[in-house]
Write a structure and sequence with these properties.
The protein has 554 residues and is an alpha+beta fold. The chain has three domains: 148 residues, Beta Polymerase, domain 2 (2-Layer Sandwich), CATH 3.30.460.10; 162 residues, Hypothetical protein af1432, CATH 1.10.3210; 86 residues, no CATH class. The protein contains 23 helices and 15 strands. A seven-stranded mixed beta sheet has the order 5-6-7-4-3-10-11. The longest helix has 29 residues. The two termini are 41 Å apart.
Length: 554
């Protein structure tokens, strides 16, 4: 018996080509730098980290041609107009400008100004100021949640970051350029004047958006030493925007990765969630591992690197988990399914044993151990109790079927009970992701299609007298009726009534109906019960036949 596998330590290999500086050209130009990094011992992936000497100057460029299909909301216009009419400067800044330049609708709208918080509040009666950053929330009457509060922040300067988390001191700056200098990435350091239709871009952010790269403002080490979360944010932005990380920025992340230990668990969790909810979470977590950040988020995942599986899998555990997660993102499944996809086999390294009988690895009980590990990971990251329960339940029961000939309706009902009715489809979707993540081309083989058909069959409301709120024992106890065929006739007659009106499926209502039925002459009760049973059996047979035709199973 072999011990649980241990992840093989791998060092990210970066092969950089020297920058080319053609003689006599000022400023010098460069070619893209390329970094070659591997995702597992079996697979190599080529990632491009672009770098170049962006001109560090104001680039005043019109933005209107770039936002033909997107209007700046009237609420934002109104706040900006109020500031400028009072003699202050006003600029859109940050992610909203970045999104406008990408022809995307911003998720939120932020303004920056040379007005101090007290002046801002004087201009906007319905506003509030409850933070250390100078940000004033201006309330609007918009029905759009994104526009109910427009945040207006004075130009800022930030002091030393002694804890790599937050500035020791914040002071207000006099110029927009000073404010942009303190920001994290060039693509977030662009300001736009609505009134003048001009972009202020001193750090080449527009160029980086065009080239689709993530680059820090200034020296990467300085930016990450100020706030270590910026390293994880850069990776998250690369996943959300499908941008590459510029070479020097990537090297800065690798050099400063250990600073992430100083960041609060909640801030790390929030970035981690946004990575999972992005379109390319596999790429993001792969890069996070290569640059040394993943071990400060979920070190358990790294145990799967180099941990080979059995013949049913094409990839090691780590790559399998990332590919399973990616398929869940491709299918736009909710966060619970994505998180379960990432952790469903997290315990395989700990449970791996070699079977001489099978001449292959086994992972017995990995779903049980994995559920415990998942719960511990999510508690450590301070996920909500409801989220932890949902994901843990999916991980615990993801091995829910094997031989299709052995699947019974009672087993299906037990699975529905284990994960709860509302989660059964999430479990089935997880199973499809698991299959694709194993390297199998077919998402729904025969046995899964058969299982899906049986789930639909089991979920029919209700499908038998066993799903009534009362049974024969309840009737005897309540009415004193003796055992015999009359009990069966009553139950089938009750089922007919519940099928017509599901709200009757309560003990109180059914006992009232039972007493009325038992008062009927025996022959009339027999006819009602047998007619209901015959009709239900025919309807069940027809419905089940349709389900099996739907999923091409017999």
């Amino acid at each position: 018996m072999t011990p649980p596998c241990t992840a093989r330590k791998q060092k990210a290999v970066f092969v950089f080509f020297n920058a080319v500086h053609p003689e006599g050209l000022e400023p010098p130009t460069t070619v893209p730098k390329t970094a070659v990094i591997s995702i597992s011992p079996r697979v190599r992936k080529l990632m491009h980290y672009h770098t170049g000497n962006s001109p560090r100057r104001n680039e005043c460029t019109t933005i209107r041609s770039m936002i033909e299909k997107l209007d700046i909301p009237k609420e934002v216009h109104a706040v900006s107009d109020t500031l400028t009419k009072a003699g202050f400067e006003s600029y859109l800044v940050g992610g909203c400008v970045r999104d406008l330049l990408r022809s995307k609708e911003p998720k939120d709208w932020d303004l920056t100004t040379n007005a101090l918080p007290e002046k801002i509040q004087e201009l906007f009666e319905d506003s509030f100021y409850e933070n250390d950053f100078g940000t004033v929330g201006v309330k609007t009457e918009s029905e759009d949640k994104r526009l109910k509060i427009i945040e207006v922040t004075p130009y800022r300067l930030e002091g030393e970051y002694s804890d790599a988390r937050r500035p020791d001191e914040i002071t207000f700056a006099k110029t927009l350029e000073e404010d942009l200098e303190r920001r994290d990435f060039t693509i977030n350091a662009i300001a736009y004047s609505i009134e003048k239709d001009v972009c202020i871009d001193p750090h080449g952010g527009q160029r980086d958006i065009e080239r689709k790269i993530i680059t820090t403002v200034g020296v990467p080490h300085d930016r990450f030493a100020e706030d270590a979360l910026r390293m994880l944010r850069g990776i998250r932005l690369s996943a959300e925007l499908d941008f590459a990380i510029e070479a020097e920025t990537a090297a800065g992340i690798a050099k400063n990765a250990e600073l992430l230990e100083k960041i609060s668990t909640e801030r790390i969790r929030d970035e981690f969630i946004r990575i999972l909810e992005s379109d390319t979470p596999m790429q993001a977590l792969f890069i996070a591992q290569k640059l040394g950040l993943l071990k400060y988020i979920t070190p358990e995942l790294e145990e799967g690197i180099g941990c080979d599986q059995n013949q049913a899998h094409s990839f090691d555990v780590f790559e399998h988990l990332l590919r399973t997660l990616q398929h869940s993102a491709d299918e736009k499944w909710p966060l619970e399914v994505r998180t379960a996809a990432l952790f469903h086999d997290v315990a395989k390294p700990a449970t791996r044993r070699f079977s001489k009988e099978k001449n292959d690895y086994t992972f017995h009980g990995h779903e049980v151990v994995g559920a415990r590990m998942t719960k511990a990971i999510m508690k450590r990251l301070h996920f909500s109790r409801e989220m932890i329960e949902s994901v843990t339940r999916l991980v615990r029961w993801h091995m829910f079927f094997s031989d299709p000939d052995q699947i019974t309706l009672s087993a299906v009902r037990r699975t529905i009970r284990n994960v709860e009715k509302d989660n059964i489809w999430d479990l089935l979707n997880l199973r499809v992701c698991d299959r694709i993540g194993s390297g199998r081309p077919k998402a729904q083989p025969f046995r899964l299609r058969k299982y899906i058909s049986m789930v639909e069959e089991a979920l029919r409301d209700p499908i038998s007298v066993s799903q009534l709120a009362i049974d024969g024992s309840d009737i005897m106890k309540e009415t004193g009726e003796s055992p015999g065929p009359r009990l069966g006739w009553v139950l089938h007659a009750l089922l007919e009534k519940v099928l017509d009106d599901p709200s009757l499926n309560t003990k109180e209502a059914l006992f009232i109906e039972t007493k009325a039925l038992l008062a009927l002459p025996q022959e009339e009760l027999r006819k009602l019960g047998e007619a209901g049973k015959d009709r239900r059996e025919k309807e069940d047979d027809a419905a089940i036949e349709e389900l099996r035709k739907k999923y091409h199973v017999s």
